[in-house]
């Protein structure tokens, strides 16, 4: 009986094996990781092979390391799928451009794909000295690298890296991606000077200075960094000038609170780059910031509580002209509540899926809404300021944002003036008669531009509305498909490199209108468009014309 059972089981297993589909015949992929600037191999790079499966299919992702010759190999690659290869290594940027990332490719049964090249862009270095007028080093000076970038549709200047000089006045800032930068140096920091301190002689200090010797960013000299560049001898020669105090108080706050961190910062206007600062308040909430030269500044106060986040007061703009400022007061500006409704034309979807937030002009944080089931929402603690509307999430499938109205005023550029309060509702209307855009992107040689980022943005008076902007990525044939597009006039841009938030800015997009395609979308329409890719070199050239 036992032998019969075993034989029966073996027969069943054999039958099941014969019923199974024949095993797939895997392929393989070989390639090399090289330095984009020199062409030399990059050893010990982390290499990924990621599949681009059809909807519902299983992803097949693999990882390995390049060898001493920069070579990599993947065996047992599932056939019939499209794959993309990327790599990472310390000292290099993530590959961003089509010339750096190989185009997606398909692996057939038993196919050996070879010659795949991943180019890593090496990072750059800035170095120099901070010295006084006699050539003596200034240790502990703060050196900040600044760069213009686009955020929430606006062009801004902000810090990307920072360092302090050593005891020889030297600084070296590593791992900078290629691009245009500015350098700022601030004097060594002096902290927690008692409020009523009086000095026996006129005070002097080193002013905030932009390379090579400018007092404001508009007069600074930009530094253009190429891949793998080492730009040295960026030397500052600072001369002490008469210095003054900024004294004042933070209303309703006291110093020395447990588990709190207070910071007062004095910055050049519009830079958000740090500068002269003092940590902590006096017991009565007062402060004294010494060593500030003549000029215009933004002064900020931020209190951080452990486990509770930051409380940032609105920035104060001041001007020092041969005298101390003794009466600067930070107050928590009056807050208002903005209420509104998400309305739907036609059948209401099960979930609205719209993220509504307001970003004040003079604040680094945004306030988001709380929702009710009926589509009403409330945004609390909004400063009385000009705020930018952020509709970050896309509406549910089959819908688009048809209208945004603050009271009787149609919002066309995302800015809402709340400086006089919010005595009207903010109503967002969803429409369901959007159009479709089917497009194809080609290289300049007429080949399909695969894996290319496409931006479709309004070209009329609604160009500033980021919620009307659509993004897609082309497939292996260079095609893309967009649905639920609000009726209107658009321009279509295809970028050879993957950009951050830059395409959300109409100012940035306008630089490339001549390389885009115009298209008009009507209600329930289906529109086709052909566009050529905008080359990375063209993007870099236009960016170099910006400040």
Write the layout of secondary structure elements.
Blueprint: H1 2-19, E1 27-35, E2 46-52, E3 61-65, E4 71-77, E5 81-88, E6 105-107, E7 112-120, E8 124-132, E9 142-151, E10 154-164, E11 170-176, E12 179-186, E13 204-205, E14 209-210, E15 223-225, E16 230-231, E17 236-238, E18 241-250, E19 260-267, E20 276-279, E21 286-293, E22 295-305, E23 309-312, E24 316-320, E25 325-330, E26 335-344, E27 356-360, E28 367-368, E29 370-371, E30 376-383, E31 386-391, E32 400-406, E33 409-410, E34 415-417, E35 426-431, E36 435-442, E37 453-458, E38 470-473, E39 479-485, E40 488-495, H2 506-510, E41 517-521, E42 526-532, H3 536-544
How would you sum up this structure, described in words?
With 547 residues, this protein is mainly β. It has four domains: 27-120, Immunoglobulin-like, CATH 2.60.40; 124-330, Sandwich (Immunoglobulin-like), CATH 2.60.40; 335-431, Immunoglobulin-like, CATH 2.60.40.1120; 435-544, Immunoglobulins (Immunoglobulin-like, Sandwich), CATH 2.60.40.10. It has three helices and 42 strands. The strands form ten sheets. Strands 29-30-26-35-32-33 form a six-stranded mixed β-sheet, with no helix packed on it. Strands 9, 10, 12, 14 and 15 form a five-stranded antiparallel β-sheet that branches. A hairpin with a 4-residue loop joins β29 and β30 (376-383).
């Amino acid at each position: 009986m036992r032998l019969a059972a075993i034989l029966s089981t073996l027969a069943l297993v054999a039958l099941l094996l014969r019923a199974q589909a024949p095993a797939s015949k895997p392929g393989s992929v070989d390639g090399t990781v090289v330095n984009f600037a020199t062409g030399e191999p990059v050893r010990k790079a982390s290499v990924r092979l990621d599949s681009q499966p059809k909807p519902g299919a299983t992803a097949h992702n693999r990882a390995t390391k390049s060898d001493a010759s920069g070579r990599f190999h993947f065996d047992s690659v599932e056939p019939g799928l499209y794959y993309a290869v990327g790599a990472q290594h310390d000292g290099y940027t993530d590959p961003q451009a089509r010339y750096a990332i190989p185009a997606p490719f398909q692996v057939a049964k038993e196919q050996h794909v070879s010659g795949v090249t991943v180019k890593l862009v090496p990072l750059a270095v800035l170095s120099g000295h901070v010295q006084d007028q006699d050539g003596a080093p200034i240790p502990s000076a703060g050196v900040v690298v600044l760069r213009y970038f686009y955020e929430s549709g606006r062009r801004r200047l902000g810090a990307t890296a920072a360092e302090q000089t050593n005891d020889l006045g030297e600084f070296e800032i590593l791992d900078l991606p290629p691009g245009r930068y500015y350098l700022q140096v601030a004097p060594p920091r002096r902290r927690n000077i008692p409020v009523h301190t009086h000095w026996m002689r006129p005070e002097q200090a080193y002013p905030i200075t932009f390379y090579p010797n400018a007092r404001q960013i508009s007069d600074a000299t930009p530094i253009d960094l190429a891949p793998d560049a080492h730009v040295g001898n960026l030397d500052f020669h600072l001369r002490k000038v008469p210095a003054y105090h900024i004294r004042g108080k933070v209303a309703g706050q006291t110093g020395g609170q447990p588990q709190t961190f207070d910071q007062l910062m004095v910055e050049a206007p519009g830079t958000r780059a740090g500068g002269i600062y003092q940590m902590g308040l006096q017991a009565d909430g007062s402060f004294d910031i010494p060593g500030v030269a003549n000029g215009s500044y933004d002064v900020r106060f931020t209190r951080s509580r452990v486990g509770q986040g930051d409380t940032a007061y609105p920035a104060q703009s001041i001007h020092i002209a041969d005298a101390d400022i003794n009466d600067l007061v930070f107050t928590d500006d009056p807050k208002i509540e903005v209420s509104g409704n998400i309305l739907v034309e036609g059948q209401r979807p099960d979930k609205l899926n719209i993220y509504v937030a307001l970003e004040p002009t003079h604040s680094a944080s945004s306030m988001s809404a709380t929702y009710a089931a009926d589509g009403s929402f409330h945004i609390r603690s909004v400063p009385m300021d000009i705020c930018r509307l952020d509709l970050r999430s896309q509406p549910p499938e089959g819908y688009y944002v048809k209208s945004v109205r603050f009271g009787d005023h149609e919002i066309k550029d995302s800015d809402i003036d709340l400086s006089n309060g919010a005595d009207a509702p903010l109503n967002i209307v969803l429409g369901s008669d959007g159009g479709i855009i089917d497009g194809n992107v080609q290289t300049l040689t007429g080949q399909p531009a695969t894996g290319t980022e496409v931006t479709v943005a309004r070209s009329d008076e609604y160009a500033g509305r980021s919620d009307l902007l659509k993004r897609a990525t082309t497939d292996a044939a260079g095609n893309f498909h967009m649905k639920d597009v609000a009726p209107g006039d658009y321009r279509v841009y295809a970028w050879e490199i993957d950009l951050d938030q830059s395409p959300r800015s109409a100012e940035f997009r306008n630089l490339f209108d001549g390389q885009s395609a115009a298209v008009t979308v009507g209600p329930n329409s289906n529109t086709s468009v052909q566009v050529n890719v905008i080359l990375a070199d063209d993007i870099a050239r236009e960016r170099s014309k910006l400040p």
